[in-house]
Amino acid sequence: MQSFERDGLRFDVRDSGAGEQGTVVCLHGFPQDGSAYDGVTPRLVAAGLRVLVPDQRGYSPGARPTSGRGDYAMHELVGDVVGLLDAAGVERAHVVGHDWGGAVAWVLAGRHSERVQSLSVLSTPHPKAFEAAMLRSTQGLRSTYMAFLQLPALPERLLLARDGAAARRVLSASGLPLERVEHYVARMLEPGALTAMLGWYRGIAASKGYGGGRTRVPTAYVFGTRDPFFSPDAARRTREFVLADYRITELEAGHWLPEDHPAEVAAAVLRRVTTSV
Q1: Reduced to 3 states, what is the DSSP secondary structure of residue 120?
Q2: For residue range 211-253, what is the model confidence (pLDDT) as tens digits?
Q3: Which backbone phi and psi does 172 adopt, to 5 degrees?
Q4: The whole model's pTM is what?
């Protein structure tokens, strides 16, 4: 499949592999798109898996609603993934998520465990672990940018000025490889794109019951010890919110695990998949 539709929105999808060993859904974060998994996907396909990688709400040009914060509430983001599974004819999938995609993956597993065969989350702690760490560690300081991105209009104005110069500086400083910086900034410069991407941050207030509860599916958590956005305390606390087999992999790495460490990410996902069949 190349796309699917939900509630009048059209989502672009990368669909690879025959799937003799099952299906994996990979969810990207901000400001990525499905190409974040380009180094991971071939390794999963080689293991006999079908890999579905959507450009999510706000990132697919045909899925950038503009009616308000509720368009990007967590229940809509999770509903998009369920819609993808339905459109692809997949009853249960192994779900992988990074950054915001990791948050969606946690909530999907919490609310729709019957659709998730296993869970592999990259970088993003469980939402409840993230909340607990906000007041007890450096997590609050690391997350101050989230408040800025919720402001109306100003983030777009600053990040996109002079052909995205500020966006390039910020992403480069975070450790994202230069070629990925250029690709993601080019997507941000599309008309209306950055406002749609930031809808995920602005939709936080509309996301009641954000955390989705404890996770009851087999879970792998891959964490970069040099991640500037998530604290080690939040990573450690994540174990408390998984009521199933749980495996954590710590890498000497930063935040951008799918782009920078595709082999390690694929290996962790495959270990989780093969023990959850």
Answers
A1: strand
A2: 668 999 999 999 999 999 999 999 999 999 999 999 999 999 9
A3: -65, -40
A4: 0.97
